[in-house]
Amino acid sequence: MTLVYNFLICLYSFIIRIVSPFNKKASLWINGRKGLLKKIESELKANEKRIWFHVSSLGEFEQGRPVIEKIKQQYPEYKIVLTFFSPSGYEIRKNYEQADYIYYLPQDTKRNAKRFIKLINPSMAVFVKYEYWYHYLNQLQKAAIPTFIVSAIFRPSQLFFKPYGKWYRNLLYKFSYLFVQNNESLSLLNSIGITNADKGGDTRFDRVYEISQNSKNIPLIEAFTYGNNLIIGGSTWEKDEQLLVEYFLNHSDNIKLILAPHEVHNKNIERIMAMAPGKMLRYSTADNENINNYRILIIDSIGLLSSLYKYGTIAYIGNGFGNGIHNTLEPATFGIPVIFGPNYKKYQEACDLVELNAGFPVENYESLSNILNKLLTDNNTLQNSGKASLEYVKSMCGGTTKFLQKLSEKNVL
């Protein structure tokens, strides 16, 4: 299996190189790794104590972020080395101030892994959620470097738990300790003899709750919202926008709508505004004089969404009619009900919100209209759903603290 694994790693790299002239993400993946080990060797300073964090992309970074920042706070003598597999994470967070060194992860070959681990010589390694790279885990184990995974989640369908999955199971045995998100994951690990594991929750909850406690005030949004129920469409795509705009045009009394689309380039903003000509205002052109003349506001910039939810009555999270919903925790932490499309079942937090009557999946305009009408006309349902959202987030916080307690128990740092 190791030979097959090595072949697949090489094949993946070959395919990425072939498509890189035509694909920006593939090009960034290749160019970001050119001469990378030499660059790392030239930048690392002698006599440093280091901790290595590895994440796949931006979502996993957000899960690892509260852990990184707590370790930086409690153990300032350690330098943080942060690696990304995907350009969509690296390119956005390559200037993250809490990490001392930020790189792409060199391709997982035995030679690369051996050299990388020797160069950074970490006192500890932390993987976030997944990313089970054979050669890196092998080298960490050989070097007796404590290696952890946080916010991991497992399903029975994964190869680790199949009768023919011994090679894959061996990857899990290389971790010093595994922190998983739920009881099912813990039971699955126990079923294959892994007992050095604990339920540590999803550290994203720590992050989103922290964001909610430090959210910024946005005076223009306060002026726009004043005296009205506000529906916020977060990270929306075309199908989401069609449904929300149709509902609004049919039920505009005492309701205002904010759309924060996933893509904020001008062409997409113009497409959205054409759905209701003359009825929408871009945030970039809004001011105190014109903002109350409109009932639909389009956010045409990034960085505002996590603070927008504090003004919302109800949140609608986008891409549930695509390949999977975006972040439901950000609105939930502000104590408002969350609505999303049908493709949500692979997201544990969304399933939990549905079970708690804090999240509501919709399949078409009729179901969206029914749930919005219910929430907007029945104050008890609205309040109870919002309260359930916030209580759920609070109940799931603490994964970062639990991880740090385990480090202290094991005298890792």
Helix content: 40-55%
**Count, helices:** 19
Average pLDDT reading: 94
Instruction: Write out the CATH superfamily name of the largest domain.
Output: 3-Deoxy-D-manno-octulosonic-acid transferase, N-terminal domain
Largest sheet: 7 strands, parallel
3D shape: globular
pLDDT under 50 segments (min length 5)? none
How much strand? 15-25%
Structural class by helix and strand composition: alpha/beta
- Please state how the strands of the largest beta sheet are arranged side by side: 3-2-1-4-5-6-7
- The N- and C-terminal alpha carbons lie at a distance of 35 Å
Number of domains: 2
* CATH fold-level label of the largest domain: Rossmann fold
- At the first level of CATH, what is the class of the largest domain? Alpha Beta
Summarize the structure.
With 413 residues, this protein is an alpha/beta fold. It is built from 19 helices and 14 strands.
Task: Explain what you see.
With 413 residues, the chain is α/β, with parallel strands linked by helices. It folds into two domains: 30-203 and 398-410, 3-Deoxy-D-manno-octulosonic-acid transferase, N-terminal domain (Rossmann fold); 211-396, 3-Layer(aba) Sandwich (Rossmann fold). It has helices spanning 2-19, 24-31, 36-43, 58-74, 87-93, 110-120, 134-142, 166-172, 183-191, 204-213, 219-225, 238-250, 266-273, 305-308, 329-332, 348-355, 365-377, 379-396, 399-410, and strands spanning 49-55, 78-84, 101-104, 124-128, 147-152, 177-180, 197-199, 229-236, 255-261, 280-282, 296-298, 314-317, 338-340, 359-361. A seven-stranded parallel beta sheet has the order 3-2-1-4-5-6-7, with helices on both faces. It has a seven-stranded parallel beta sheet with strand order 10-11-9-8-12-13-14. Helix 17 (365-377) packs across helix 18 (379-396). The model has no long low-confidence stretch (mean pLDDT 94).
